Amino acid sequence: MEKEIIQVKHISKRFKVSKREAGLKNAIKSFFKRNYKIINSLDDINFSIKEGEIVGYIGPNGAGKSTTIKIMCGILVPTAGECIVNGFIPWKDRKKYVKNIGVVFGQRSGLWWDVPPIDSFELLKDIYEIPQKQYEEKLNELMEYLNLQDIINIPTRQLSLGQRMRCELASALLHNPKILFLDEPTIGLDAVSKLALRKCIKQLNEKTNVTIILTTHDMQDIEALTERIILIGKGKILYDGSLNDIKNQYNENRKINLKFKYTDKIINLPNANILEQTEESASIVLKHNDESIADVLNELTNQVEVVDVSIEEMSTDDIIAKLYNELKI
Amino acid sequence: MKLYFKTVLMNIKSQLEYKKAFIISTFGSFLITFLLIIAVYFLFLNFNQVGDWTFYEVAFLFGLSYFNFSLAEMFLRGLDHFDETIRNGEFDRLMIRPQNLLIQSICMEFDLSKIGRIVQTLIVLVISISKINIDWTKYKILVFILMNIGCFIIFFAIFILKATFCFWTINGLEFMNILSEGGKKVAQYPINIYEKWFRLFFTYIVPFGIVNYFPVMYLFGKSNNLYFGITPIGTIVFFVTCIFIWEIGVKHYESTGS
Amino acid sequence: MRKYISFFKLSFNVALQYRTSAIAGILTQFFWGIMQILIYRAFYKNGAGTGMVLEQLVSYIWLRQAFYSLINHVTDSDIKSSIENGNVAFELIKPINLYWIWFSKTSSSRMAACLLKCIPVILIASILPGNINLNGPASLGTFVLFAVTLFLGMFIMTSIINLFYIGIFYTMTSKGTTSIFYALLEFFGGGFIPIALMPKLWQTICYLLPISLATDLPFRIYTGNINILEGLKYVVVQFIWLGILVVLGSILLKKIMKNVVIQGG
User: Fold this and answer.
1) Domain interval for residue B112
2) Could you tell me whether strands A255-260 and A306-312 are parallel, antiparallel, or unpaired per DSSP bridges?
3) Beta-carbon contacts of residue C88 (< 8 Å; ≥ 6 apart)
């Protein structure tokens, strides 16, 4: 039923960069003779994405994220490999292909700075040759989903970043693309705007079934929006699968901190290890991740008079940091 | 075409948002060419003539060259500032839009403030025409129009070349100014006053000679050869060559993305 | 002085990184030189004008091209935008006088750029065939005086440019003012045509302004258009102007920065 809208097969990309060392002497040397080295920005990348999916494409800086996105957008031609997006090879027949995609760069604006967004939209209508009727329908739809009514007539430079990003989203979707690339959409946004934007993105995906590829450094974006992540490091794909799996795999066992009324009894639990215990407090780690906390707590209340309980869990950020560390990327 | 005018309109709107800066820029662009023609006038005060060309004849060529250059600067500002488009990554954005890249690049900017220079060079052109005895005929009017179109085409092509250069490096742009700024200055004198090797370069490689010396010989009645008058048509060859080089540049950008 | 040397080192290092720029710059300077010489040669064919003989003019043009980076009108876009967007207030945190920061930055980047460009241009220009080459100086004395006036001239230019930066505090926009500044500086500095070829009245005006002390005087000394004795007098004039421009600039800037602080940036 769901067709694979993006297929990336064995994509590699190599660049030549000039090397430079610090210091005046080396600067003079390299003025006359440049040293180059070849770097493998992407090395045999493979994945495919189904229609309507939201995929988080993550990895540390310089891992090859934006190179992959550029290739999928048709901006860059890979050194080797195949890529088919919605039946097109992106870098061939560019003009026809790009009508299928929408792109939002979080760091750069696609709107004209000095005029209100509505003027930009009108121009995009002409650039993408969208029929008037279709344009109006789509615009109304987007205004509703993205809550644009009040901001669409204010010059872009006077909008807040959150408002601007909502307009950017609209501008990328006016021509009704099948695929939406979001490159760090929440960068620089405050907490409230981030939540609002995530909600908008989620809603758009549900209502229009647009396929979304999201790159970000904010793991909360990933948690809120995607089931599936693709992790890239040093030009290679290191993980492709569900976020929950990786969380379970890398999450340290949950830790329970307890406070209770004075006792000299030693706690004894079948399913958990006691890390430390004083006369009024203890911290306990579950032996297995699938252990029910409720059962453990039940057992505990039988043994001591519990005053306060707190459960520590690793955040996704911690997990990813641990993952990066472990994979040495 | 419609698209171009829409973006131009958008640009004008933006520029009018900053009124003071706009007025000062307009005055600035006026002042430079004004002082330049004064400098040429001073030279003629000192030397009377160059070759067998008088001040007003040179002023005519000055007007022709600077007028069309200013037009190019105003309409093709996006190409003139293409290094910025590359540097801030805007070109990537153009590549994800379903339109011709060259046209989109041109549409990036439109510099209304060059209007000061355009008006002023037009005045130079008009005054010099009124001071020179030209026997206006149908053909001569046609030749005059051809000269302007040809001159604009050369600057257009040079601007494309200059922008293309940015696909490889954005640091050596000064070099390309030899063609744009240098060409503008070379073309303000009839090219037969220069040494032979220089003349050949600016006739056959960068063909300023065919919009300047040859047609003006016919226009001023120094020659009756109508073929001299229609030489500006040859600029199309130069233009097409430059478009071709641009396409190579885009290919290069696609494989390096830098 | 230490600060100044490290500024210079940094600028030189930066200039070296952009090899293509440097080569492009040399070629450009060279081309402009050839083109101007060809134009003037055409004028001189009809008989000499007043003011300068062709041979002097050719050397004059080559020297101007070779040392153009020292005496040109180019302004620093970082400094300009820092004034426009108000970030200049942060410079007050640093324990150096803002006027001297600008002064060091401008003059050191000029020297760095010149160091890269002047030698190739001079070398090539000296060996050109067909009477369009650069001639050597008349004597060692002329050369020393040329070097001294050129150096002082660069500082005069730097202080004029500093005044331009100060002017941006009043206009709050540098886009158009930069081109007005360029036009006036080039015209009255003999950039559009050498001052010696202008009508008498205009010559007098140009020589009364300090710009020509940077852009014209050193090269006329080298080519022998001004003799050594007269040249020495001009060195005194250069010192006087430099003093006036620096004091004026410092005072104005101090006054403005006080207001900047009061308004809170």
Assistant:
1) 21-252
2) antiparallel
3) C82, C98, C260
Q: Decide if B258 is inside a domain.
A: no
For range C238-262, the mean pLDDT: 87
Residue B19 sits at the chain A interface (C-beta within 8 Å): no
Candidates B32, B81, B109, partner chain C, best to mutate (most C CBs within 10 A): B32
CA distance A184 to chain C (A): 27
What is the count of residue pairs from B and C with beta carbons less than 8 Å apart? Answer: 123
In a domain, B83, yes or no: yes
On whether residue B7 sits in a domain, the answer given is no
Closest CA to C117 of C23, C32, C215, C218: C23
pLDDT tens track for C55-73: 889 999 999 999 998 888 8
Residue among B167, B11, B16 at smallest CA distance from B77 = B11
Beta-carbon separation of B257 and A67 below 8 A: yes
Whether the CB of C92 is below 8 Å from some CB of chain B: the reply is: no
Q: Is A183 helix (H, G, I), strand (E, B) or coil?
A: strand
- Average pLDDT of chain A? 84
Q: What is the rounded average pLDDT for all residues in chain C?
A: 86
CB-based contact C13 A34, cutoff 8 Å = no
Q: Is the dihedral of CA A19, A23, A27, A29 positive or negative?
A: negative
Strand A179-183, strand A211-215: pairing: parallel
pLDDT digits over A178-188, tens only?
999 998 888 88
On whether the CB atoms of residues A197 and A162 are closer than 8 A, the answer is yes
Give pLDDT tens digits for A84-118. 999 999 888 888 898 889 999 877 777 887 788 99
Q: Which C residues in the span 221-250 are in contact with B, Cβ-Cβ below 8 Å?
A: none
Closest CA in chain B for residue A156 = B14
Domain locations in chain C as residue ranges? 2-257
Mean pLDDT of B24-31: 85
The total number of structural domains in chain B stands at 1
Which of C73, C128, C193 would best serve as a mutation to test chain B binding (most B beta carbons within 10 A)?
A: C193
Q: Does residue C43 register a pLDDT over 70?
A: yes
Judge contact between A154 and A166, C-beta under 8 A. no
The candidate with the shortest Cα–Cα distance to B182, out of C30, C69, C133, C216, is C30
Coil, strand or helix at A83: strand
Mutate to test the interface with A, among C12, C13, C23 (most CBs of A within 10 A): C13
The residue assigned the tokens 């503008």 is: B184
Distances (CA, A) of A35 to B54, B166, B257, C17: 55, 22, 20, 13
